[in-house]
Design brief:
Layout (H helix, E strand, L loop, with lengths): L1 H15 L32 E5 L5 E3 L5 E3 L4 E3 L6 E3 L6 E6 L5 E9 L7 E4 L3 E4 L12 E9 L12 E8 L1
Antiparallel strand pairs: 1-6, 2-5, 3-4, 6-10, 7-9, 7-11, 8-10
């Protein structure tokens, strides 16, 4: 039994002794790295536009007849045409773009039935507004147009609707 124990111990000592190993050659290598672009999700176009209106209240003053001059038999200071007046900014339309795309606003005037002789025109009939991307909310792109009306309002009219302004948004 002693011989078997000595043999087992000798075998164990042999196994724990270091063994030297030599490599025949060192291999260096390389490998290509590939990549693929995948577009991330994009935001939908969101349109958000504010339109602010002046009061759109106009006053028509008929042409002044002038003062009768009995010597010349003519009216002095007579006016040929009536005139339209309004409070400051009452005729102003402002369009503000809060969209993530540019917009174009078209302005039109349509006379109401019975008032076809009253015409409306704008100093700018088309407002082109760039995208609001990159701007602060209180500095969003905006522009304004002014409505001018002309024609004669009948004598008996008071606070009547003579026409309609429409703002049409285009992409």
């Amino acid at each position: 039994m002693k011989k078997k124990t000595v043999f087992a111990m000798a075998l164990a000592v042999t196994m724990i002794m270091g063994t030297t190993v030599f490599a025949a050659e060192v291999n260096n290598g390389s490998h290509q790295v590939t990549a693929t672009y995948v577009e991330g999700s994009s935001s939908d176009t969101i349109y958000s536009v504010d339109v602010s209106w002046g009061s759109m209240e106009f006053t028509y003053t008929s042409p002044a007849q002038g003062t009768w001059d009995p010597e010349t038999h003519e009216y002095l200071g007579a006016e040929d045409a009536g005139r339209w007046t309004y409070a400051e900014d009452a005729n102003k339309i402002t369009v503000t773009n809060h969209s993530n795309a540019g917009v174009e606003a078209g302005l039109t005037y349509m006379a109401a039935g019975g008032y076809e002789n009253i015409e409306g025109t704008f100093d700018e009939a088309t407002l082109i507004l760039p995208t609001a991307v990159g701007t602060e909310a209180d500095a969003a792109p905006s522009d304004s147009a002014l409505l001018e009306i002309s024609g004669e309002l009948p004598k008996s009219e008071d606070s009547v609707t003579v026409g309609t302004v429409t703002v049409t948004l285009n992409k």
